[in-house]
Amino acid sequence: MVLVAGAIGGWILFRSNEDGKDPIVVGTTSTPTMVDPGGAYDASAWALMSNLYQSLLTFEQGREQPVPDAAESCAFTDNELTVFRCTLRSDLQFSNGRSITPEDVKYSYERILAMAARADEEAADDSIPEDEKFSHAGPSALLATLEAVRIDGQEIIFELNQPDATFPFVVAGSAGAIVDMEKYEELEPRTGWEVDGSGPFVLRDGNDGDSVELVPNDSYRGANEVPEFPVTVRYFYENDEGASAEEQLAEAWENGELDVNDGKMAPEVMAGTNFSDPDHPVTETPAGSIRVMAFNTDDDMPLGSRVARQTIAALLDRDSISSRVQFGTVEPLYSLIPVGFTGHGTPFYDQYRERDPDVLRERMLDAGLELPLPFDLAYSRGAGNHAEAEMVERQLEADGLFEVEITHYEWSEFIPGVYSARDYDAYLIGWRPDFPDPATFTDGILGPGDGLATGFASDQVNRLIADAQAEPDRGRAAENFLAIHELAAEEAPVIPIWQDKRFTISEANITGVQLLNSGSGVWRLWELRRI
Predict the structure, then answer these.
(1) Using CB atoms within 10 A as the burial measure, which of 100, 205, 232, 268 is most buried?
(2) How far is C-alpha 304 from the chain's CA centre?
(3) CA of residue 332 relative to chain centroid, distance
(4) Is 12 helix (H, G, I), strand (E, B) or coil?
(5) For every residue of 128-195, which 3-state class applies, written as one string?
(6) Cα 41 off chain centre by
(7) Are 454 and 494 in contact (CB under 8 A)?
């Protein structure tokens, strides 16, 4: 497969930004950790960065398949899918005016791996105090198959350590974002809100993270058009008075402070929205985001027992959670691969039809478990998350099989507790796809990358993952994905609960909202226009 660039948008490259157009104001509760692609591995950051940086490839709107952006063309040049070669466009420049070179591309990838290596080295160095060790939360796990990056003129050659048909998807995401090697330190992520990128927008002001002001980048050359309007993104957090981000977003929308409401409002508020209001149209787009219950599966942990995890998988009533807590704004999910992705099935329904508490009790006792089995359940921010944790607690305690202690953590404390300290017995957490391919729900969650830090490992699963990675026809890989998730349901290191729905409300004079979101994680703010 060869990916070749088109000439979209070339005729408007020199249009002035100083046209007096008022910014389109977009509100969201999805707040980024940073705007450095070398250090950010959260969906909120990637959404914003997709407007500020270019990758060699991007995702074609509608099909969500990789197509050239900063590259003229890209292709695997061997039958084994281990050599991926791209030709960089020669007419690109960063927002600071410096021309983009193949060396910048090479540096951008190697920088991510170098920071991950630094974190590993310092973690193993007992001479460095724990609170002084470098912690890297960037997207290095997505580059696990990348062996080396070479340059040949304008060409960038990626050499992989095993066949990987998903590598073009990785290149198209923010893990492949190109940074200025003269402006970004190799071993330290950039903090603050300064960006030297080459995407459709330039970040003019970060306003300390409360909002960001984006202006069209007339020097952008790539797969998309230069935006017509500046955009202001307002971020909503829980404030000092205890008002949630969802409450503040809803208030700002009601007060007419936003042109586009693209955040997550409380489920009961969203359920009461008039979807037929012509003055405030609601756009629903498919969402690949899922909500799961994950476990620390280490043998010495309370839920290191597979039988205990299987019992939880049988007792969870997803329909009640979806309807009574989330008010129908989500769909019950019985597979880690959600609806809309190749390999979706219902293994967590098919394997757990036995829900008789007496039968489940006997199985737990036969496994040598003392009842009720106590464990801690952690959760963090999000609309309805407290009510959800309480319902899970009631469901699991109803028949005396478990004793659950639920604990809420601030996001800044919750994430290190999951990934670094691995403090929690179980935790409710969301997972958004890194790219629009089912591998993101298999390799990312169940493979060696251990994206949810469960400690789960399976040679059989890893072999199936490798087979799926080596299949260029992603439809033909469906059999592998189904087999992986049958095994995942049997071991139950992670239990799916629901699949999200994405709702965006806008003023009637705003167009392009239906193109704003997609399963690729690209946030197409450049499509928004005021009529």
Answers:
(1) 100
(2) 27
(3) 20
(4) helix
(5) CCHHHCCCCCCCHHHHCCEEEEEEECCEEEEEECCCCCCHHHHHHCHHHCCCCCCCCCCCCCCCCCCC
(6) 8
(7) yes
- Number of residues that make up the chain: 531
Tens-digit pLDDT profile for residues 304-350: 999 999 999 999 999 999 999 999 889 999 999 999 888 999 999 99
Cα–Cα distance, 432 to 42 (Å, whole number): 9
Contact residues for 86 (Cβ-Cβ < 8 A; gap 6+): 56, 57, 68, 71, 73, 74, 105, 155, 156, 158, 171
Instruction: Report mean pLDDT in 10-residue bins for the chain, 531 residues.
Output: 46 43 95 93 92 97 92 96 98 97 98 96 93 88 94 98 96 96 97 96 94 97 96 91 88 96 90 90 88 96 97 98 92 94 94 96 97 97 86 98 96 84 93 90 89 94 94 91 96 97 95 92 96 93
- Cβ burial of 291 (10 Å; 0-12, 13-18, 19+) is buried
Strands 373-379 and 402-408: parallel
Cα separation values, 23 from 15, 52, 204, 525, 530, Å: 17, 16, 12, 11, 9
Cα 337 from Cα 340, distance rounded (Å): 9
The enclosing H or E element of 506 equals strand 494-506
**Calpha distance 158→89 (Å, rounded):** 17
Establish whether the linkage from the previous residue to 372 is cis, with ω within 30° of 0: yes
DSSP 8-state class, residue 443: H
Q: How many CA atoms, within 13 angstroms, populate the side-chain half-sphere of residue 170?
A: 21
End-to-end CA distance of the chain: 39
Tokens representing 409 are 């953590």
Q: Sort strands 426-431 and 373-379 into parallel, antiparallel or unpaired.
A: parallel
pLDDT at 243: 83
DSSP H or E run through 460: helix 459-469
Long-range Cβ contact pairs of 420-424 (< 8 A, separation 24 or more): 420/135, 422/296, 422/298, 422/453, 422/455, 423/378, 424/296, 424/376, 424/377, 424/378
Which pLDDT belongs to residue 457? 94
